[in-house]
């Protein structure tokens, strides 16, 4: 086997091993949270359950917060999410794209609700939850840029609406606070939330044809 092929093979092997190690650590964390609560989810306990060295856990995630963030990432931004995003961005009609954005928001918040309920039930402290929520919002804001770019390229953004203002509107309306108020506090179903959000996004961002 040529040296370049051997190097490529070794690189792929290392990547697969790193991915598997990452997955074992996250799954060990989930199991410990469910069985022992946040207090029992020490880095040492995670390492023992995942059958890796403590130093490996720190090298991969840096801290307990880093592991929890990855746990939420896997819960929130999994294969279903990526498939919905791909289908939405492939839509040629801007209105259908925005209605897809409402579906994406519903998927995100439904998944995060389950993830955060797990963390709350495990006794994760409020400041830790707040930091994790802020990180989720930062990720969500970054990922919404592609939607605004696609609407502007289609020349369907409302006149006088800058890309930044449009992105802020999209981010605000699809945010967790709106979901919480409608679904958790007012008892709206997540399907009705999606329908309302889709109509509101279209009215707020698009030139009406």
β-strand percent reads under 5%
Q: How do the helices and strands follow one another from N- to C-terminus?
A: HHHHHHHHHHH
Classify the helix fraction into a percent range: over 70%
Instruction: Give the rounded overall mean pLDDT.
Output: 85
How many DSSP E strands? 0
End-to-end distance: 61 Å
Low-confidence blocks of residues: none
Helix run count? 11
Q: What does the overall shape look like?
A: globular
**What class, by secondary structure content?**
mainly alpha
Nearest-angstrom radius of gyration? Answer: 20 Å
Query: Largest sheet, if any?
Result: none
Could you characterize the architecture of this molecule?
The chain has 209 residues and is an all-alpha fold. Helix content is 82%, strand content 0%. It has eleven helices and no strands. It has helices at residues 3-40, 43-50, 54-61, 64-76, 79-90, 94-121, 126-143, 145-153, 163-173, 176-185, 190-205. Helix 2 crosses helix 3 (54-61) and helix 9 packs antiparallel against helix 11 (190-205). The mean pLDDT is 85.
Topology:
Blueprint: H1 3-40, H2 43-50, H3 54-61, H4 64-76, H5 79-90, H6 94-121, H7 126-143, H8 145-153, H9 163-173, H10 176-185, H11 190-205
Helix pairs in contact: 1-2, 1-4, 2-3, 4-6, 4-7, 5-6, 6-11, 8-9, 9-11
């Amino acid at each position: 086997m040529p040296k370049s092929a051997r190097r490529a093979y070794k690189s792929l092997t290392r990547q697969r091993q790193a991915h598997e190690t990452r997955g074992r650590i996250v799954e060990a964390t989930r199991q410990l949270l469910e069985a022992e609560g946040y207090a029992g989810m020490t880095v040492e306990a995670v390492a023992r359950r995942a059958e890796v060295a403590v130093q490996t856990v720190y090298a991969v995630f840096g801290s307990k917060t880093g592991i929890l963030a990855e746990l939420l990432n896997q819960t929130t931004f999994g294969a279903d999410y990526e498939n919905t995003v791909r289908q939405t961005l492939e839509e040629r009609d801007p209105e259908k794209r925005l209605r897809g954005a409402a579906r994406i928001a519903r998927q995100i918040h439904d998944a995060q609700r389950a993830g955060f309920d797990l963390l709350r039930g495990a006794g994760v402290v409020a400041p830790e939850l707040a930091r994790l929520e802020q990180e989720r919002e930062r990720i969500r804001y970054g990922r919404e840029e592609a939607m605004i770019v696609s609407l502007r390229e289609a020349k369907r953004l409302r006149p006088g609406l800058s890309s930044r203002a449009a992105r802020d509107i999209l981010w605000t309306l699809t945010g967790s606070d709106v979901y919480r108020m409608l679904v958790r506090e007012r008892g709206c179903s997540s399907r009705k939330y999606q329908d309302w959000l889709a109509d509101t996004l279209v009215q707020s961002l698009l030139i009406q044809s």
